[in-house]
Amino acid sequence: MGILEKISEIEKEISRTQKNKATEYHLGLLKAKLAKYRSQLLEPSKKSEKGEGFDVLKSGDARVALIGFPSVGKSTLLSTLTKTESEAASYEFTTLTCIPGVIDYNGANIQLLDLPGIIEGAAQGKGRGRQVIAVARTADLVLMMLDATKKDVHRHLLEKELESVGIRLNKQKPNIYFKASVQILGGGISFNSTCPLTKIDEKLVQMILHEYKIFNAEVLFREDCNADELIDVICANRVYLPCLYVYNKIDQISIEEVDRIARQPNSVVVSCNMKLNLDYLLHILWEYLNLIRVYTKKPGQPPDFNDGLILRRGVTVEHVCHAIHRTLAQQFKYALVWGTSTKYSPQRVGASHTMHDEDVIQILKK
Length: 366
Hints:
This protein has helices spanning 3-16, 24-42, 74-81, 129-137, 153-164, 202-211, 227-235, 255-262, 278-288, 317-324; strands at 62-68, 99-105, 108-114, 141-147, 167-169, 176-180, 189-193, 217-221, 239-241, 243-248, 267-269, 291-296, 309-312, 332-338, 347-349, 359-365. It contains 10 helices and 16 strands.
């Protein structure tokens, strides 16, 4: 029996099993087996298959992967937002490889990757799905393109495909400390929690770890997590990405339906054909990527607003020094900052001061 057959058997078994107190250990064990087989499926085979890959050099300040079913308007969006022309036609699978484009917004270069359409079963390798998903793992943000006329069917299918290959959308990493240790003084599994656990207990944790052939480990739960989240921590190959759901073709549905979709969390409604709401999409994209602009100033001269530094939200003055030049942090004496991060302008700050968007900084060396 191949891995695919084993996976389908376990999935059928999980769907058949009733969820109650008596079956939770059985279900936890099945989920652990399922995760193990899926990770085996993702491992590259010994015989490297020759063919056109999707590897695109990471460039710019951030990388955004455009994922969606065929013919939902991914190529049209790429051609509209960037200077790159991606072939768009009324038939499915117009795009057959990865086409990169660059969005120039607020002085930042955001790399947008137009990936071929995903079909159901992509995680098992259907329709070059595995290559598409491998590129998505390297992105900073997933832009999920959906057809507004198809309700939420596509959205649930795509989430399921990405979930099965270890991509977690709009989720935080589980706050579980896990360390597989060598046997010391009797060994065994050390289990602790700093909060009451309602979804898992020590017996289930031991059964899941034994499924992975782990018999000596430390496990500490800092929040109330379930079996799936524990498996994610044990596998340690999960990617947690922010995701923005973009509903295209809003010019073909009623205004009430547009209003309903737009109020959903992490959702934006656009029309690539009529160029509706694209400016708001770029604004939200900027917010989700957590990018900020920091402008530099030379002593006795006005700030340079044309060429700002593009950095991530939460950066300190020390990070700004490294962004300007790698030796600047060693010679750093203090900095003067103008902007919303200070109580008064200019304020003399140290290397640990946190910068805000559109702050102006003047660095003084020793």
